[in-house]
Design goal:
Blueprint lengths: L17 H15 L6 H8 L6 H16 L4 E10 L22 E2 L2 H13 L4 E6 L6 H17 L3 E5 L5 H10 L3 E3 L18 H13 L3 E3 L2 E3 L5 H14 L3 E6 L16 H14 L4 E4 L3 H5 L3 H5 L5 E3 L11 H10 L7 H4 L1
Helix pairs in contact: 1-3, 2-8, 2-9, 3-9, 4-5, 8-9
Bound molecules: iron/sulfur cluster.
Iron/sulfur cluster binds next to loops.
């Protein structure tokens, strides 16, 4: 049973004001015409006062229903190779450069197949294999070859991968293996990226995203919110994602991990998180916008408002190094909201 929605959001007073004008313009441009907001308008949305949040979320929900439909895409993720990553993304407890408690480990193929079966049993259509690496080496590619073949032989589910930066050869091989979607996040705005990662560049991430799409795989490219970026940089990121046109954007909210450079940053405040979800929906009207890591700590039971404010996909079960919600409680939330789960047939 999903907990009752409790919020102190006040009734809208936006009508007839500059804020109301912005929402009216967004309604015409995004809802009626299907054109996402530009960076400047996304920033204006991110600056809207709390009093307009109800109207903003309602508009974002209408946009999602109009341009994506009522279905919610469900995905499970599994870590094939955990920890010990040579990169230094300051929010990540899987970096081998920080004093965080995550140990390096590999999963075996039978466990991978079991996880895919368990994911499919929830009604999920996507199963994403993730590895904490800069990019795949031959050992990892061999595991992926074997793992993808074993999953495809055992269970009906789309296989996605997230293996870091890729060469053209690796992109081609993953496409040939039948990998349906590839995840590679931009993480944060180009202008702020050097404050978050120093071991590779934003441009290198962008290049892998371009290679993935050119090879015919679906592109999943997401963000992490609350890593110290300004609202301007958050709007910049939304515009950069819109320019990339990914099929899916997973939205992570920082869950500050002990031992990482961002371990002491405060979690994003709930209303700010909801406003961000709505702003990204208005920038990306047709994109699958997925709840990813951090929603539990940032939103708690208010996550139901995000489902009615632009989100149309969830990750069920645990994340890579942090616990998610119980899949049953997410599925119960979707049932209570009368939001159908997207079927495998609908994704083919
Ligand atoms: S986010 Fe990915 S690339 Fe960065 S440290 Fe973590 S596992 Fe490595």
């Amino acid at each position: 049973m999903t907990a009752p929605v409790t919020t102190t959001v006040e009734t809208s007073t936006a009508a007839g004001t500059a804020d109301g004008d912005l929402l009216a313009r967004a309604r015409q441009q995004v809802l009626e015409e299907g054109r996402g907001l530009d960076e400047q308008d996304v920033l204006a949305v991110l600056r809207l006062p709390d009093e307009t949040l109800t109207d903003l979320l309602a508009l974002a929900h209408e946009v999602r229903l109009r341009w994506c439909g009522p279905e919610v895409e469900v995905e499970g993720i599994i870590s094939l190779k955990t920890g010990g990553c040579p990169e230094d993304c300051h929010f990540c407890s899987q970096s081998g450069r920080f004093d965080s408690p995550v140990r390096s480990a590999w999963l075996d193929i039978p466990s991978l197949v079991d996880a895919a079966k368990a994911t499919a049993a929830t009604g999920a259509t996507e199963f994403c294999i993730v590895a904490a690496v800069r990019g795949p080496d031959e050992r990892l590619m061999a595991q992926i070859r074997e793992g993808v073949a074993a999953i495809r032989a055992a269970v009906d589910i789309n296989v996605a991968c997230s293996l870091g930066m890729l060469t053209q050869e690796q992109v081609d091989e993953l496409a040939d293996l039948g990998v349906h979607r590839y995840n590679h996040n931009l993480e944060t705005a180009r202008s702020y990226f050097p404050q978050v990662v120093t071991t590779h560049s934003w441009e290198e991430r962008w290049e892998t995203c371009e290679l993935v799409r050119a090879a015919g795989m679906e592109l999943c490219c997401g963000a992490i919110i609350g890593v110290g970026e300004t609202l301007e940089q958050r709007a910049e990121l939304a515009a950069q994602l819109a320019a990339l046109e990914p099929d899916e954007v997973p939205l992570n909210f920082l869950n500050p991990r002990p031992g990482t450079p961002f371990g002491d940053l405060p979690p994003v405040e709930a209303r700010e998180a909801l406003r961000t979800i709505a702003a990204f929906r208005l920038a990306l009207p047709r994109t699958i916008l997925r709840y990813a890591g951090g929603r539990e700590i940032t939103l708690g039971d208010l996550d139901v408002q995000g489902m009615q404010g632009g989100i149309n996909a969830v990750i069920v079960g645990n994340y890579l190094t942090t616990l998610g919600k119980n899949p049953d409680s997410d599925l119960a939330m979707l049932a209570e909201l009368r939001m159908p789960i997207k079927s495998l047939q609908a994704t083919l």
